[in-house]
Write a structure and sequence with these properties.
The structure is a single chain. The chain is an alpha+beta fold and 418 residues long. Helix content is 15%, strand content 30%.
Length: 418
């Protein structure tokens, strides 16, 4: 055995333990970093061929890997935009240069433009395409800024009141549809609809009994009401419909065709057809009762809060009570997560070893689910790291003794000439 080879083997061992101590140091330093995945060192022997009874010492080689597939504990927070993944997958983020990466660090906060950015400065990517099988081209930097909301016009609604079966029949000439002062009606409800530009239109709905088991409903533009807020309106009804009920049980007959269709747009040159269905209405021996009509659409008044579902759908609760789906947060997976390329900022990139990236929707197939108001903690175990530190320290010392012994033997060899 060569004394020089022995010394080089000792140096190789010290370098290997130094690498291991380096991963331990990083793990301990990042034990509180959200989404951090612990690094660990694996050793492999480099053996040199030996002949004629001699042994040539080799070396030890180290490979540093990350436990990316090992999930950290979820820690719940008070921020809605803090998100974590329960299960497999990664968030997709982008840096200022437009490069895309994967990450498990979900501590996102909105910036001045409403873009969601994490502590490392990466912007969250989302999509308005709600289908599975997404590609990187479907992604974009998303924003929850209320200035980015667009108005959603009202196109349909549902209203199911109870019309009093024992009410008096309103004679012709004094019904709401006649638009006369002192019109007689048995029920009134107002509703809000929205135009294509987000303008609120208040619609007054009047009900009058016109015959046995027969009712008439009329819709008026509340902005055209008379001085007392009622009849006569400056213009006639937007629409009028007759509703028929069963004499046996008071159920609405022909619910499919019992609809009121009218234009809710203030501009008469722009038609915005709105259909109000009365499916579920009934006529029983009780007072006029009605819940607020359920109407789709929204205005442009901004929103009060956002919510994130398990499938990554981000919704905004409008100040008018409506809910708008803004975008969806996709999830990416790879075949071998532990072999991803690790980059600064808790981000990863796919490579030949990890396999290609597949983008999809949370809660489907092998994708995990998104948990809002939570963060994934580091998967570092401090006790395990301290144990590894002690082992590496002892091993480093032992390898240094090998080097020191080789050096002492060289001194003996040199002194033989004296």
């Amino acid at each position: 055995m060569s004394l020089y080879g022995m010394m080089r083997t000792g140096v190789s061992g010290m370098n290997a333990q130094s690498n291991r101590l380096g991963t331990v140091a990083d793990n301990i330093a990042n034990s509180g970093t959200m989404g951090y995945k612990r690094a660990y060192t694996e050793f492999s022997a480099l053996i040199l061929p030996s002949e004629n009874g001699t042994y040539s010492s080799g070396a030890v080689k180290t490979t540093v890997r990350n436990s990316i597939a090992d999930q950290g504990l979820l820690q719940f927070t008070s921020s809605t935009t803090d998100i974590a993944i329960q299960g497999d997958g990664f968030f997709l983020v982008q840096n200022a240069a437009g490069d895309q990466f994967m990450t498990r660090a979900g501590s996102f906060v909105p910036d001045a433009q409403g873009r969601l950015v994490n502590a490392a400065g990466f912007y969250l990517l989302g999509t308005t395409n709600m289908a599975a099988g997404l590609t990187p081209d479907d992604l974009q930097v998303v924003s929850i800024s209320s200035t980015g909301l667009t108005a959603s016009p009202s196109t349909e609604g549902v209203f199911a009141p109870n019309l009093p079966a024992l009410a008096e029949i309103v004679p012709a000439g004094s019904r709401p549809s006649d638009n006369v002062a002192g019109a007689v009606f048995s029920g009134k409800t107002s509703m809000i609809a929205y135009t294509g530009i987000g303008e609120e239109r208040k619609i007054d709905l009047y009900f009058a009994k016109t015959g046995d088991n027969t009712w008439e409903v009329s819709a008026y533009d509340a902005a055209l009401a008379g001085p007392d807020g009622g009849f006569p309106y400056s213009e006639g009804p937007l629409a009028t419909q007759t509703l028929s009920f069963s004499a046996t049980n008071g159920a609405l007959e022909n619910p499919e065709t019992s609809t009121l269709v009218f234009d809710v747009n203030a501009d008469p040159t722009v038609l915005q057809e709105f259909t109000l269905s009365f499916a579920g209405a009934q006529s029983l021996a009780a007072d006029y009762t009605a819940r607020a009509p359920a109407v789709n659409g929204s205005g442009t008044g901004g929103f009060d809060a956002i919510s994130i579902d398990l499938d990554g759908t981000v919704s905004a609760l409008n100040r008018n009570g409506s809910v708008i789906n803004l975008f969806r947060i996709p999830i990416a997976t790879v075949t071998s997560p532990d072999r991803l390329t690790t980059l600064p900022g808790n981000v990863y990139q796919a490579n030949n070893g990890s396999g290609g990236m597949t983008i999809g929707v949370a809660t489907t197939s092998n994708f995990g689910e998104i948990v809002a108001g939570a963060l994934e903690g580091s998967n570092v175990d401090i006790a395990e790291e301290l144990t590894s530190m002690i082992e590496s320290q002892r091993n480093y010392t032992a390898n240094s003794k090998v080097f020191q012994t080789g050096a002492d033997l060289l001194d003996v060899l040199v002194n033989l000439k004296r």
